[in-house]
Amino acid sequence: MSAAPLSSAASAVVLPVPPRLLSTRAWLGFAVCLAVLCVLVPLANLVAPEGSALHVSDYTVALVGKIMCYAICALAIDLIWGFTGILSLGHGLFFALGGYVMGMYLMRQIGRDGHYKSDLPDFMVFLDWKALPWHWSLSDSFVATLLLIVLVPGVVAFVFGYFAFRSRIKGVYFSIITQALTFAAMLLFFRNETGFGGNNGFTDFKRILGITIATPGMRMALFITTALVLLGFFLMSRYLVRSKFGRVLQAIRDAESRVMFCGYNPVHYKLAVWTLSAVMCGVAGALYVPQVGIINPSEMSPANSIEMAIWAAVGGRGTLVGPIVGAFAVNGAKSFLTQTAPEYWLYFLGALFIAVTLFLPQGLVGLYRKLRPAKGQP
Asked: In terms of CB atoms within 10 Å, which of 17, 104, 251, 257 comes out highest?
């Protein structure tokens, strides 16, 4: 007896609906942020008169631009710590490497406008250098600089991560090694013979692409570029963590041994997200330098890397939005307290980190979700 044919309804395979990148409310918030940062702030700074209540000062623009660079770093930390369970205390190195690559280009753009009227940077003339060292050979090309901003921190992170993850170094041991790596690099960059300006680093920048940095148009172009990069990295990170790749990362965070038993190689996933986060920090450093006007080895100090982890913890790690909020909250408080009560700033930072660890393990975003439960996760 022949079997009855299967109906089309019974034979149809129902595929899971892919998760949306953002909810409708989140897309609305994203659009508002985009409009504020890329339209309203530029108009308030460039068009509104200084005496107007709508005017945004140059100081505020520079401060927000700097904090947005920090927010990119906090987002990078969240990818490896919040979603993969890898706590890095050395991402200040990658931030500084990107900044130094951009700084080298900016130093070459000074040309003969320096103090010594030489084609060499002033610090090289002062140290009696006769020619540029080999690692400065591509520093006069903007296109090469853009590539090196990505490649230098990416290659350093890949090489370090390859040996560290293959050796199955994890937990507090990994955190200590990353901090030691950053400290060693800082000591190296302090040396004058390396050709990176020693303890003074690079400063007194003049131009980008032949355009004076100090002009309002260039300052605002850097601000808008930073805002677009931050929002773009947020969307990219959101896409990654909601994809299969992101689900594997979270599985590695929760139970790495089970992931191995399921046939996945955690080394490949950890190395990929580790390198990506380093590149993000390098891009942030490159955007930071022309807006702040200086880069020196102090950017590699272990304290700076620890602060990045604090931003993610305060905002709420594992949320993507949280680290951005944390970077703005902590650095906004830092800017205020270092002016009004500079002797209490470090005490406040330590107390804040302890309070978040004990009472707000999910950070400010977690507190918001508890006080006002969302219908859909942003």
From this structure: 104
